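Entry 12.
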Amino acid sequence: MRDRDDEVWFNHEFARFFTLICYLGAIALLAFVIFMVLALFRISSNAFYTYESYQEIPYHRVGLLLGTSSNVAPGQPNEFFTNRILAASTLYHHGKIEYILVSGDNRHPSYNEPRQMIRALIKAGVPQERIVADYAGFSTIDSVIRARRVFMLNDMTVISQSFHNERALFIARANNIDAVGFNAASPDSFYANFKVKVREFFARIKCVFDVYLLNSQPTYLGDPIAIGDAPLPKQPSDKPKIRTSKPKLPGFSVAGLKAQALEELKLHAKERTDSALILRQREIARKAMQEAMERDSREIATEATPRF
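Predicted 3D structure (tokens):
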């Protein structure tokens, strides 16, 4: 009977514990869903920093052109690529940017997005010396962060389609980059747009994890690269600086007082202590008093002798 009561009590407590775990899991799931929804809304809010017209977009010295493949199939051009090239060349020819940083994937020698973009931009009338290539832009987060940490851009214009610009600007603002986006036209194909939007949904979820939870960094960084006449950061030097002033004398700091005390001890190390001086003075005083008493005794004895 007792065993059955224990079994009933265990089942009851286990049911309560399982219910509590379910409640906590539901609360955690709800909090995560709310967090993701707010984060996705924040990515979408970057649409306020994108422009459709080259006449309205503010000037930035460098435009970051995000890469994609030039063809969707052999002999079939990629409209996303073509429209991005058209948007970047338009900004350059109207003086809204001076340099174009093309950033794309070059993981394999047979696939080189930056080289494809450079060729297309030159055909569109952009001088080659105004184009800078980033061959390590394997993803959007690689391209944006490398623009800041390798190419030393504090501000820039991001050039891509609107959905891509919103995500790129989200990453840029998370890395203290003052950036705006210029929206290239999207293809007319419903299928192409639908496929990209589905992929973009999952790309944004991954972006939230990369920025807020994982603090993801580029696959490769490297030494700073200057764009145009931008100065490179100064390298630290271990060479000693030339002394232009006299060395300061030690003040009343603890170290100075200790040094001064040591010097005084060295100077007075062989001097007599106060006790030795006192004993010496006492000895001299005792001898002087003894001599005075002896002298007085002789004088008294002389006076007591009768005179004839």
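Annotation: Residues 304-308 have pLDDT under 50 and may be disordered. The domain at 45-214 is CATH 3.40.50.620 (Rossmann fold).
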